[in-house]
Amino acid sequence: MTDFFRGIAPIRHEGPEATSEFAYRHYDPDEMVLGKRMEDHLRFAVAWWHSFAWPGTDPFGGQTFQRPWFGDTLADARMKADVAFELFEILGQPFFCFHDADIRPEGASFAETEANLMAIVDYIGQKMETSRTKLLWGTANLFSHRRFMAGAATNPDPEVFAWSAATVKSCMDATARLGGQNYVLWGGREGYETLLNTDLSREAEQAGRFLSMVVEYKHKIGFKGAILIEPKPQEPSKHQYDYDVATVYGFLKRFGLENEVKVNIEQGHAILAGHSFEHELALAASLGILGSIDMNRNDYQSGWDTDQFPDSVPEIARAYYEILRAGGFTTGGTNFDAKLRRQSLDPEDLVLAHVGAMDVCARALKAAAALLEDGRLEVARAARYAGWDAPENRAMLTSDLDAIHARVIAEGINPEPRSGRQERLENLWNRFV
């Protein structure tokens, strides 16, 4: 045990009238929502990188956090793991997520770095034996080190491609060893800054082959979890190859991987791509590739990814409505890819950030579930397309232009516009949120 969270007791559900800051008001893991426990709907996870590895930097300022485990030794990494599992116990958290660089120190060579990773994986595995917290997903950090400045899979240097492939192999092994339910590929620098030095066709082929090797290795080792790609627009690369869900799906189709790989969608990334979170979720669900989510929010006055904890129930309810409509998570969950503000220095801040976010998500889930159970929104949606239920209208989708032209002439079809009733549906939505 460490003394980092000294004096902070495990958080319990005390209801909306709770007077203590250190209580869940809305998140009750055992509450039944649409026939399933709330914990099993939400499947919360703590992000190791923001909660335990991030030093409080931003694009314009250096480190503000002083943590006793900040260092480059295995002893520091073990202390970090100790603190992490103490937070998991305080929060009653079912899952966590990590990059390799979050949990192990960098070595002088690839072999030393890999040995460090496996040593810490063994240590985390021991801690998991006495903890209820499981691994939602693991991933490789292929973007922070200077070697990745021109990308990983798409790098023009074949030695960087090789290093990246070897790193992913190690991270998939680590994820499998810890019983991870997914493996994520986050292409933080898979893109380009200028066409003057970029071969788009070559880089796309490299990325496609790299992902295909990941899928092949998944089957080789018998990993039962899902492989996920996280869409990421224009930050830090000017033109990011994995820009949004639609871009990722086109990439998967191009390389025949649409039935092997799903997406992990982040709220902040959706906004940076010019979409809403619910749009990206609905599109992924319609394409059959919805896997998991990173929950956070951006500062909408800033043009970059601020990774704040969520605080808007109406906004998050829209997201969970689409997740519930899609049938809910299977291997995926709600990972808090969110970090404290640089001025939030205290251990209590880290606990309360998660407590508040979990309550926001719980309220949002219940609102979305109530609206879905009410059914009027789905009835209205179905009514808008009811004309397509008629056999003669369905037949147009397998017909041709000549036949449809003849039908319009013969039947004197002259359509009148019909209201989309958006404001009525918004009013209905707001009665639940």
From TrEMBL:
Catalytic residues (positions): 99, 102
Matches recorded under PROSITE patterns: XYLOSE_ISOMERASE
Top-rank EC class of the record's enzyme: isomerase
UniProt-annotated location(s): Cytoplasm
GO biological process: D-xylose metabolic process
Superkingdom of origin: Bacteria
Principal location listed in the UniProt entry: cytoplasm
GO molecular function: magnesium ion binding; xylose isomerase activity
Cellular component terms (Gene Ontology): cytoplasm
HAMAP family for this protein: Xylose_isom_A (MF_00455)
Similarity-based family: Belongs to the xylose isomerase family.
Identification of the protein by name: Xylose isomerase
Originating organism: Phaeovulum vinaykumarii
Organism classification: Bacteria, Pseudomonadati, Pseudomonadota, Alphaproteobacteria, Rhodobacterales
Gene transcribed to yield this protein: xylA
